[in-house]
Amino acid sequence: MSSPKSTPKAEETATRILDASLELFRLEGFDAATMRDIAQKAGVATGAAYYYYPSKDAIVMDFYRRACAEMQPKIEAALEHADGLENRLRELIRVKLVHFAPYRGVLRALLRNGADPKHPISPFSPQTAEIRCIDFDWFRRILVDCGMRIPRDLEPQLPSVLWFFQMGVIFFWVIDESPDQARTTRLLELATKSVTTLIRLSGLPLMRPVRKAALELIAVVKGDHA
């Protein structure tokens, strides 16, 4: 069976519905916007809107997937000349903030449901696992030849830890009301420096007990703790 968006005309219609949805989510909130409202704003019949997107969750998932795909070459380009873990980590997150800047209001509208890991549109849900794994791969890549020795027991855990760190920065950015989100810019500078310093220090022999406690904490957060 072919996809509803398999022709140029169908893709244009789907994009129009997606754009109308995002605008309504920004203005009215995710819960308040209805599929009928979305169809009316997009200039299509309600049945047509359901044909392309069976639910509002499906619309958000398409938004996530498109954003993920569009960001891949941007991240690649940003990291091409970034040396050292601190610069790589900052650039990786910065690309996402720049990409999502036009949709900051949309992300804010999705925040309530996005914070619930049981909700399908949450970045922490099983439904978004594929996108999350792509993100994990980038965090795994920036650790390779990053200019510092990373303890063997910590290295497998770092991609997910850095991903959670990224989500904290993005959350702060979404709710940041400072002009041009200047506080987030400063936060990203300071936080990436702090995180990479902690990772560097974690390899010292005297930090072994602290690292062990940190690994146990990570296991609890990830649900791996016995």
Can you describe what's shown?
The protein has helices at residues 8-28, 35-42, 46-52, 56-80, 85-100, 104-114, 129-143, 158-175, 182-201, 208-222. The chain has 226 residues and is mostly helical. Helix 1 (8-28) crosses helix 6 and helix 2 (35-42) packs across helix 3 (46-52). The longest helix is centred in the first third of the chain and has 25 residues, at 56-80. The radius of gyration is 20 Å and the shape is elongated. The N and C termini lie far apart (45 Å). The model has no long low-confidence stretch (mean pLDDT 92).
Mean pLDDT: 92
How large is the share of residues in beta strands? Answer: under 5%
Describe the main β-sheet briefly: none
Q: So how many helices?
A: 10
In terms of structural class, how would the helical and strand content be classed? mainly alpha
Choose one word for the global shape.
Answer: elongated
Helix content: 55-70%
- The multimeric state of the shown protein is single chain
List the uncertain runs.
Answer: none
Q: What is the helix/strand order?
A: HHHHHHHHHH
Query: What is Rg?
Result: 20 Å
Which structural traits does this protein have?
0% strand, elongated, mainly alpha
